[in-house]
Amino acid sequence: MARIELVNVGHAYGGAANAGTETRWALRPMTMTWRDGGAYALLGPSGCGKTTLLNLISGLLTPTQGRILFDGKDITQLGPRERNIAQVFQFPVLYDTMTVFDNLAFPLRNRGWKEAAVRTRVGEVAELLDLAADLKRRARGLPPDAQQKISLGRGLVRTDVAAVLLDEPLTVIDPHLKWLLRRKLKQIHQQLKVSLIYVTHDQVEALTFAEEVVVMNHGEVLQVGTPQALYEAPEHTFVGHFIGSPGMNFLPCKLGANEARMGDVTLPMDAEWLARAAAAGTEHQLGFRPDAAEVLAAPVASTAGAAWQPARVQSFQPMGTHSLLQLGFGGGSVWVRAAAAFQPAGDYVWLRPLPGKLALFADQRLVPRSATEASIAPHASTPEAGAAP
Amino acid sequence: MKPVNQKAWLMVLPVLLCVAFSAVLPLMTVVNYSVQDILSPTQKVFVGLEWFREVMQDPDLHGALLRQLIFSACVLLLQVPLGIAVALAMPAQGWRASLTLVLLALPLLVPWNVVGTVWQIFARDDIGLMGQLLARAGFDYNYASDANDAWSTVLLMDVWHWTPLVALLCYAGLRAIPEAYYQAARIDGASKLAVFRHIQLPKLRGVLLIAVLLRLMDSFMIYTEPFVLTGGGPGNSTTFLSQYLTQKAVGQFDLGPAAAFSLVYFLIILVMCFVLFNFLKAAEAPADATKGNAP
């Protein structure tokens, strides 16, 4: 077990010659610390650099720049064999000709363990993974979930594993077995207190599995946070868009002194907030979650002057527990969640985004509501980040 | 039960006809020859299994069969390991990989009789490059007069000609192994030998099965190259089965014994391939058998 630190680590395939241009980075230089014993999910679309980051940690790749520390010790140049990392791949990687026992024993035998010690250790790990009954069978004939457990077991047999890295390990598993295996993983995590880094492009998997989720896109870590933080306070439009189903609504907006204008809609906003947003970038977007707005089927007396806006109904989907509305609003299209019983009366409904849950983005990045909030946000790149009292 | 649609027969009829005329009828003709003594175009006598009996007791045939078995065994023992080694040594990508592929494919593109001619000249001790070099190095080498030299030359020629096939098949097999296997092996701390033994070799099983079958059948039917190179000599030392058969059928016009022998020859190849195929398949069978009853 170990605390893993990445210090200014960046990677470009093809070496330093390729690293010059911004777009060539498979992983842009980043600094980050992974807590010892934490359960992390690396979430992002295909090709965003998740696997590159994973392979850098496991030592399959050596970073083009930067240093990697395990518990403060620089291991940047060490190979995967010396790093004590367990890695599970997208599909089961097995030694076809071997039994389950031999598969699990393989890493130990390669390290010259005595056969008696191998037997004890493999027995323990097989017990942990519910593989004890299958030890004598050929690994190849087992169902995919057992095969993935063997892949995991080959990592876990080594004592003092620094971290377990899982690269979309449930891709080939039947849906009804997925949750079983995920629960097994959580159980192992709690039992062994080993750090887990779990790569996935499935947000449900990430949000249910991890204590902290690392969202990546285009080789860049956009946000690290609890599932709740990612949902409620996305720091980047991509995070808002990627997390949640449907994702956050974004409307391009023009900033005034006391208000934001989107198409024909004007919303009053805090002047100081608007000023900071204007200073932070040129392109601005207003964001709100589908459940961060109220919607009415018809105007009532109190709607006048209270920021209620008519919105054209583009689609209406009853979902059982709630209804989803797609509305033409503020020069764009937004998704809104309404109560299950909600029924639009005509072509228009009345919409009011909750002022307390609006988020303002400048050049894709979140502009915090207040200057103090900015100083708390761990990844704020704004200059006032260091101005904590 | 589903009703059987008899129209399907109509669909396969053209192929059946083609196969009948190209394979079944000629084979029947051979069977016909093998049980008759053809004295002249109008005179023939049914002799039953006489020709088979004669052929089975022919010492020349026994010699040819033994040589053939030894030759095929040598071919497999040399070409398969060598082909794997070449495939492992080949670059995985880039222009070097393309270049190697083209160079390797060249021997396969040369017509077989040209291969024989090339080696016939190449190995001559008076004007051939290899023969000259060997002679200058002090070897008493002459494939036309020494049986051992003839053997090694024929083998060398076949290795040159056909190892690339094995290598290309293995190369394709190696490229098909997902990168994750090598990555897992690195994490597991596996040595190069262990990677070969536990990842590459098992993953090559399929292509090796094909390579072994192809090389066994082809080497068992080898005719052109040794015929051009040594003509089966010196003496009978490099006369393999097909050449012996040709001598009998076309050289001596012993159509009956030749036909009987063809059938035996055909059966030998069939049985060998069948046994080998099942033997190699059996290695995979236990794993597949457990697949069905897995929980």
Present the secondary structure layout.
The complex is a heterodimer of chains A (389) and B (295).
Chain A: E1 4-11, H1 16-19, E2 27-34, E3 39-43, H2 50-58, E4 65-70, E5 73-74, H3 80-83, E6 85-88, H4 100-110, H5 115-128, H6 144-156, E7 163-167, H7 175-192, E8 195-200, H8 203-209, E9 212-217, E10 220-225, H9 227-232, H10 237-242, E11 249-252, E12 254-255, E13 259-262, E14 265-268, H11 271-280, E15 284-288, E16 293-296, E17 309-318, E18 322-329, E19 332-339, E20 348-353, E21 359-362, E22 365-367, H12 371-376
Parallel strand pairs in A: 3-8, 3-9, 6-7, 7-8
Antiparallel strand pairs in A: 1-2, 1-4, 4-5, 9-10, 11-15, 12-13, 13-14, 15-21, 16-20, 17-18, 17-20, 18-19, 21-22
Helix pairs in contact in A: 4-5, 4-6
Chain B: H1 8-34, E1 36-40, E2 43-46, H2 50-56, H3 59-89, H4 95-109, H5 112-122, H6 129-136, H7 147-175, H8 179-187, H9 192-203, H10 205-220, H11 224-229, H12 241-251, H13 255-282, H14 285-292
Antiparallel strand pairs in B: 1-2
Helix pairs in contact in B: 1-13, 2-13, 3-7, 3-10, 4-7, 7-10, 10-13, 12-13
